[in-house]
Request: fold
Amino acid sequence: MSISFDRALGIHAEALELRERRAEVLANNLANADTPGYKARDFDFKAMLGAQVDNQMQMSMTSGKHLPPMDIAQSNGLKYRQPDQISLDGNTVDTQKETAEFTKNVLDFQASFRLLNGKFKALTAVLKGE
Reply:
């Protein structure tokens, strides 16, 4: 019997990829907090993960002439964040909000990583016959 890593790991691998991508977006916002005219960006993690899972479940190539399914994690799902108040120079980055979102994303990344690590430990134990 073969092991299906997709079924064994669930959505945790996709979640880690999206969390990493979101960390980059949020870090970019923070790095540009003093850039005049910079518009803060973000994406809806839950919607992107749902789209990633739906895309994997529904799309299948039935012919070699078909294009491969689009990788949602690599698509541009970025949207401009709606600011509470725009600065005089047009910058929409709220450093407190961005820092809070970044911290929450890091904690969620760690939780997903621990779940994924637990799945690998369980698979290793099964393979070793423990």
Summary: The longest strand covers residues 41-42. Residues 70-75 have pLDDT under 50 and may be disordered.
